[in-house]
Design a protein that fits this description.
By secondary structure, the chain is of the alpha+beta class. The chain is built from 2 helices and 9 strands; from the N terminus they run H-E-E-E-E-E-E-H-E-E-E. The longest helix is centred in the first third of the chain and has 24 residues.
Amino acid sequence: MNTKLFRSGLAGLAMAALFAASAAFAETQMYKATLTAANQVPPNASKGTGALTGTYDTTTRKFTWTVTYSGLSGPVTAAHFHGPAAAGANAGVVMPQKGELASPMKGEATLTDAQAADLQAGKWYFNIHTAANKGGEIRGQAMKGM
């Protein structure tokens, strides 16, 4: 009986240690971007500005974000992440903003390994489009930090 109790206790300790070890490798990364017309490629004359804040959980691969903006030339017609691209370069849409496009926009997605690698490497940017600026009115590169 004591042997069974001892083994059960050891098994419990081993499971707790395994859980603690895997939790130690989990990380929540913070991302931010400043959205301006000067960051557009090519730049435009909009006075609009915006900000993106986001978090990425490396264990669950869940990326959540909030984007605020003001001063745009008109209503937002589309908004999304583009990539992979360095600042100053253009790329295709990686992830559209779903739902309401009014400020603040909120979103979340579970990223693929390739998407996560591009985000972590600073190769995603967020772009807000309007009727007057179909190619994008304001843009900002999503970078780790905060």
